[in-house]
Request: fold
Amino acid sequence: MADHSAVRGCMVIKPYGFAIWENMRDQLDRMFKDTGHVNASFPLFIPKSFLSREAKHVDGFAKECAVVTHHRLMNNPDGEGIVVDPTAKLEEELIVRPTSETIIWNTYKDWIQSYRDLPLLINQWANVVRWEMKTRLFLRTAEFHWQEGHTAHATSQEAVDETLQMLNVYATFAEEYMAMPVIKGVKTPNERFAGAEDTYTIEALMQDAKALQAGTSHFLGQNFAKAFEVKFLNENNKEEFVWATSWGVSTRLIGGLIMTHSDDEGLVLPPKLAPTQVMIIPIPKPDDIINEAVDKVMALLKAKGISVKYDDDPKKRPGFKFAEHEMHGIPVRIAIGKRDLEKNVVEVARRDTKEKTSVPMEGIDDYVEQLLVDIQQNLFDRAKKYRDEHITKVDSLEEFKSVLKDKGGFISAHWDGTTETELKIKEMTKATIRCIPLDNPKEDGKCILTGNPSTQRVLFAKAY
Amino acid sequence: MADHSAVRGCMVIKPYGFAIWENMRDQLDRMFKDTGHVNASFPLFIPKSFLSREAKHVDGFAKECAVVTHHRLMNNPDGEGIVVDPTAKLEEELIVRPTSETIIWNTYKDWIQSYRDLPLLINQWANVVRWEMKTRLFLRTAEFHWQEGHTAHATSQEAVDETLQMLNVYATFAEEYMAMPVIKGVKTPNERFAGAEDTYTIEALMQDAKALQAGTSHFLGQNFAKAFEVKFLNENNKEEFVWATSWGVSTRLIGGLIMTHSDDEGLVLPPKLAPTQVMIIPIPKPDDIINEAVDKVMALLKAKGISVKYDDDPKKRPGFKFAEHEMHGIPVRIAIGKRDLEKNVVEVARRDTKEKTSVPMEGIDDYVEQLLVDIQQNLFDRAKKYRDEHITKVDSLEEFKSVLKDKGGFISAHWDGTTETELKIKEMTKATIRCIPLDNPKEDGKCILTGNPSTQRVLFAKAY
Reply:
């Protein structure tokens, strides 16, 4: 799926991993376009001074980043190799974008004059760089791929609606395509995106009972419009600052996909995102009779829009192929052997449960089509059951610690609403407040740390 | 289509320009996959030392580039804003990739052990940075988007075949999708990619009679395999260096598209790449009767896979809309008015010739479908006629200079085959050898500069 590269913290996404990302990206892109968004492309570099324009943003993003200081190399006058040309120093350093609010709002300034120019509903697929000290493939890398939506609106309400709409798009994608159940919620002020008024999140639970922030959608208020002086004339001909949102998901989702469904034999892919949905394997190896049956099955499946491949490598044995395709998480395997063909049946195995069934050739396409639907649903149900079993209500700090230690998962507990308490709990337990769920019931209680009154439970967890 | 940005030499590609690029990218991607290639992703950064590994490559690429020297910013201890943290200096500088041969071949080293691992047929869609001093939107920008294919093969012949296959894919794409005729050829040693054994090119001619290098495909021999020690065990269990190709086209193609077809009213887009192929405009403004007819026409066109939009903005007048959509190069405009509807006809205008025709509602879908084919063909024919009229044979330096000055275009002339002569002609005239066409007839002649014997004509031009 991915390798570490020669460059610290940067990964190489191998073809199979990238094919999964392409499927995720294409589906998300369709959902963005269906909700009225268009794509554009903004510069990789951000002038250093831009980062300090928005006061909170600078603290969150202007620290660990890649800084371009020179624009030329030259042959080493003192020996071998090449060195930086000291005369080619940039007047102002450029930062490789860690996120693009600043450069985009600096551009929107030229694009927005009146309410007629609004809303702007723009997304960009891009690579970004954050100089992470501890990296982990897909989950936390210095460079990663993502999409970042940046929208501009005439009213606060419209921007809030957009923020929630995109949160819902992310949740739908996670649940219906990745088969990964998520909790929609809002972040505490301490966990907000630097420069946001509100940060919404979808939080998933991995199989090791740790949480994963899988996507965020930010209501930015007028903060960036003020920082970059982006005003518009409203319908009454009065100048106002523009309202903003931004929202993003990244290649981190590939990590989420892996850690939600994998088992001891390897990857388990939900059919809707699998680059290959069905793999056909000849038993024990290809020959004319088997190939003819395979052609027929492949044509039937392709006609249904199912992606299918035939592993006809004569040098590898079926057992080796079974293991290899299981490792790749291919949802359905069809083994076709001559003895089965005499009975006009083939053997169909599903990756999620490893069940094998003898299925008549007649109607194999309908069978597989339904099986893919069943697997998609089963993966979601299985993950949701695990996730639901790992939301634990606790009412004391001792209980909190012991659940965190022995069971993990989300812990639903009362919190007094202060950043001070949040940070103390984090320091004591490494658990953070993942979110305040959107559908949270109001309930009077006492903060597990301070005993101060609380009106609702929030979700804590150890997170990636 | 695009704007300059706050960052020197970097452009913002606006949504409409990016939608065209998405269509180009998607079509190219299909063609790459149809020829057996897969996508992957390699790091944005290249360790400085990698660039010096391949001796010729370093001269060509290690000069004007973006150099990352630090990984942290901090609050300015002496005042406002943020400054580079001097303690966060990288041990080895990182270069923002100007092209990825080095980092990719360093990766292939781990991926290739035996002939069974070959060929590797990998492509990446990426942004790259070359610190150009003189920039021009789409044609020459510091950052640009491109794809770079990097393949690895067991034999020289296979790599050469791949190089030519991809050249042909590019030529097919340019001619059949962009409606931009190209000449396939090979570059002179002086114009070769740094590190290549042979560079093949497709060369187009813009309407100002200047040439545009629209895509290149390189046979890299074993140069990068040797530089990065990439060997494989062949079928006889002997170690050999791997053979390589690389090939790329970029957002420069958008510039080529614009400069091949535009006219005084703006862009003219070939139907196969137009984000919107048909725009419907109500005359003079939308009402129930017109809307009903529009719904019918749109449904018919969509059923044919034609992308169609309805500009029902009641605040803008038809003339304004006509001009706007002409500027955007939308291939077909359908004006629907009540008086026409009484006669059961609509007015269809084609962007390329500006002809308007009254067309019966009955069969409008077939009519438009054929019209889009005709426009695509007409754009190609028109561009090819212009290009063919601008290939001029000359046999003396005086004639060369006068054609270059008065007519421009490609000049077909004898050249003695030396880099010295090539550079002298360039110095005198600013014209370069664009290529030696692949289908070049052999013909004895004398070099226009030195009078030395020559066996074939080559194509000179002033180029972007």
Summary: Chain A touches chain B through 62 residues (CB under 8 Å). The first strand of chain A starts at residue 2 and ends at 4. Chain A is about 35% helix and 30% strand.
